[in-house]
Amino acid sequence: MPQKEVKQRIGSVKNVQKITRAMEMVAAARLRRAEQRIDDLRPYASAIRRMTKQAAAAAQNVPDLPILEDREDPKTVGIIVMSGDRGLAGGFNSQIIRLAMRSTAEHQRENRDLVFYVSGRRGASSLNFRGHEPKEAYTGHTDRPSYANAREIADDVIAAYIDGEIDRVEVFYNAYESPMTQHPTSEVLLPMQQATVAEAEEMEEDLEGEPEPEHTALTEYEPEPGEILERLIPDYVEITIFRALLESTASEHGARMTAMRSASENASELIDDLTLQLNRERQADITQEILEVVAGAESLT
User: Fold this and answer.
1) Which domain covers residue 110, as residue numbers?
2) pLDDT tens, N- to C-terminus, the chain (301 residues)
3) Separation of alpha carbons 94 and 107, rounded Å
């Protein structure tokens, strides 16, 4: 390869490296804020789950709460997929789509209909490409989701569940552990009976090893548990979706930071290889010129 082309490639790779390093720094800054938001949300989310569980246990015999209806043999399943609006984040988007598609295939084998709700442009385009057109696509907020975004999704799925359009709701998102580790996760959001059992088991694991209290406080409800639960359920669904959005956002920033760091390191290696190649080409040209000078001098003698 001519020296000019090698120099051009080195310059191009250096320009790309500047971009990847800048994107890594931006992702790192956003990740720190996303981690803080998750830490701030956890106590409130835990309290809402605990209150909902207690109210649901006290309101088991309360009639006329459609949101509490446990449909044992669901015919239509709502799938909420949390993806990102942008790419360049390693396997962040693809791994959650694969998990959702595996669950989709299982439901289809059970002859269940599926309704998709997607957060993020990448997820919406991937599902459209696979022939699963989302009923609702929520975009433009994945870098920094707000509670209003969670409320919008929650309102749609609650209304569909109460109206009987869907019999079960599952949410798929990347659970954040560290910048290098994100776990594709699925949870049952509705019916409440299945969701609250899962959350209760999670709380029991969190409290494992702590001494049990000698006395349990008697809870009195005013108004009735059914009315309280009817108000709590939307908050419960909203906070669960909001937590999934924050987990997904942190996972996206972590995955992008890791991917951009890897890209910068690869660019450095490529620059070193191209620089070595350039030096070899330059040395070969110098050697050739010396040989030509020697040959010319010999021809004159």
Assistant:
1) 26-198+221-257
2) 677 787 888 888 888 889 989 998 999 999 999 989 988 888 888 888 777 777 776 665 555 667 777 777 888 999 999 999 888 888 889 999 999 999 999 999 989 999 999 999 999 999 999 888 899 999 988 889 999 999 999 999 999 998 889 988 999 999 888 888 888 999 888 887 766 434 434 544 444 444 444 444 456 656 666 677 777 888 888 999 999 999 999 999 999 998 898 888 888 888 888 888 888 877 877 887 777 777 777 777 6
3) 20
Closest CA to 133 of 123, 142, 143: 123
Domain identity same for 133 and 240: yes
Does 81 fall in a domain? yes
- List the one residue out of 78, 21, 96 whose CA is nearest residue 249: 96
For residue 234, is the peptide bond before it cis, meaning its omega torsion is within 30 degrees of 0?
A: no
Question: Do 158 and 271 lie in a common domain?
Answer: no
Domains in the chain: how many in total? 2
Rounded CA-CA distance 14/213 in Å is 62
| 287 and 228 within one domain | no
DSSP 37-74: HHHHHHHHHHHHHHHHHHHHHHTTT----GGG---SS-
